[in-house]
Amino acid sequence: MISFELNPDTDTVDWKRVSELFRIVNWGIRAPQEIEKSFRSSSFTCFVKEENEIIGFGRTVDDGKYYALLVDIVIHPSYQAKGIGKSIVNELRNSLVGYEFITLTAAPNKEGFYQKIGWKKQKSSFIFPKDKKQFDEHCE
Q: pTM higher than 0.70 for the full model?
């Protein structure tokens, strides 16, 4: 059975599993303790489990009122295209009541997913790329 947990007690999260999922979806190697610190700094987190094993997650980065960004929307490849990502995005978005701007940066080649669930491409959005890979993946 698949379950969703909004803002669970971070002491109960398997951060090694979260790190493993980042690696599985090719988002690089992230240290469990660094991931934990970033999630603890987030206003909203959402974890999806099947039989107590994390299969997906997402979180927000925000200022508490005006700007919020959805980040780290990750679903194990075996569970993609089953509505789990949509549910995580909607759960996080619905938690951000009253914010003036709610944005996200899609992973390369995932733009269509977000457009399909109602997100709109911005006319003016910019990134200061940290390296050539990020430039190639995110810049026009």
A: yes
